[in-house]
Amino acid sequence: MHTSTKNSEEVLQANIIPFKPEGEFYFSKGVQAFRKREFDKALRWLKRASELSPKQPLYKCQLSVVYTETGEYNAANQVLMDVLADFGHEYVDCFYLIANNYAHLGLFHDATKYAKEYIQKAPEGDFKEEAEQLMSLMDIDEESDSDEDDELDIMLEEEDELLRYQESAFYYLERQNWKEAMIILEDMMRLFPSHITAKHDFALALFHHGDRQEAIDLEEKWLEQTPESLHSQCNLAVFYHGNGEQEKAEQHIQQLLNVYPIHEQQKLKVACTLSQIGYYQEAYKRFTGLKKSKLKGHLSYYKWYSISAYHTGEPSKAISLWEEGCIRHPSLSEQGGPWESS
After folding, report:
1. What's the CATH code of the domain at 23?
2. 54 with 131, same domain?
3. Residues 89, 173: one domain?
4. Could you tell me if 112 and 156 lie in one domain?
5. Domain count of the fold of the chain
6. Is residue 220 situated within a structural domain?
7. SS3 59
8. For residue 243, is it within any domain?
9. Segment 274-306, tens digit of pLDDT
10. What is the C-alpha to C-alpha distance for residues 282 and 94, in angstroms, rounded to an integer?
11. Among candidate residues 74, 109, 138, the one where a domain is terminated
């Protein structure tokens, strides 16, 4: 009897087929999560579906829709561009979706270009009416040759170019690719001298790239010219703290502790700065007051919020934030973890 039982178990094990989910399984899970508006889960499932079934463009299109829904328009367009590169003739709807994302980003010329291309390729397409409305809302009439319209076109082109530079600089800064960021920011300072943020971001990249004293000298000069500059106060707090010159750092830290900006981006800047210089309690309070829905596209939000939480006795929250950040921004996983920060 014992031998018979053993043989039966062996036969049973030999006939077990391991369950290996394929793309369709994950796609179904992703769609379900999307319908429940569980966007983090939807992103995770749909990314997995796309990885397992790279020749199934529908999965990528749905992934782009989730990115659009969460306001990550650049990420959405990158996915859609990949689909067009591989399946352009079959998935012309991508042209409209890209146009819509560009419109949200304020890149109106690009939005118009793709909306027109959609109408040209799918004159009776499902999104024809939406594409026409999109073009109408942007109110760009290319048939007009008046000087006023020419000036408007030039102005819009400059705005589009500035936005493209901003997006590129932001990409490299968030990923701590200081050298590439400096190249972009130098061009920005030359082409758009009135864009104040570019010079402060350049000083930040310069400092982390190793040219510390030059970065400090630049910020000190700019602070003298504009004593109320929040950017200079943040940068100098980080610079002097990084150099071990805590007495000088404290002058700027005390200024920051008494500042409560109105705009979300400036609030994030202060919170991240306080975390970087070890003021974790103060940083954590600032982070809890931020509107997460407006900052999901910022890797720095997840990184420094997580680090602040970890150092204020909230390890579970820290890990949760870090994991969510790594899903949204895979390059964050290359930056260690909140437990590795000093």
Report:
1. 1.25.40.10
2. yes
3. no
4. no
5. 3
6. no
7. helix
8. no
9. 999 999 999 999 999 998 888 888 899 999 999
10. 45
11. 138
Phi, psi of 197 (to 5 degrees): -60, -35
Q: Last residue of some domain: 86, 113, 138?
A: 138
**Residues making up the chain, counted from first to last:** 342
In a domain, residue 6? The reply is no
Average pLDDT of the chain, as a whole number: 83
CA distance 163 to 108: 11
- What is the span of the domain harbouring residue 200? 152-210
Contact 43, 21 (CB under 8 A): no
Going by C-beta distance under 8 Å and a sequence separation of 6 or more, which residues neighbour residue 280?
274, 307, 308, 311, 312
Q: What is the pLDDT of residues 299-341, one digit of tens each?
A: 999 999 999 999 999 999 999 999 998 888 888 888 877 876 5
**Cα–Cα–Cα angle for 169, 291, 176, nearest 5°?**
25
| Structure tokens belonging to residue 249 | 């750092």
Whether residue 275 sits in one domain with residue 174:
no
Q: Would you say residue 168 lies in a domain?
A: yes
Task: Using the structure block, give the residue that is written with the tokens 């003298």.
Answer: 224
Q: Is 212 exposed, middle or buried (0-12, 13-18, 19+ CB in 10 A)?
A: middle
**Cα separation, 305 vs 341, whole angstroms:** 12
Supply the CATH number for residue 293's domain. Answer: 1.25.40
The closest alpha carbon to 96, from 79, 113, 73, belongs to 113
Say if residue 162's pLDDT is above 50: yes
Specify the pLDDT at position 139.
58
Alpha helix positions (H), the chain: 2-14, 23-35, 39-52, 57-69, 73-87, 93-105, 108-121, 128-138, 147-174, 178-191, 196-209, 212-225, 230-242, 246-257, 264-276, 280-288, 299-311, 315-328
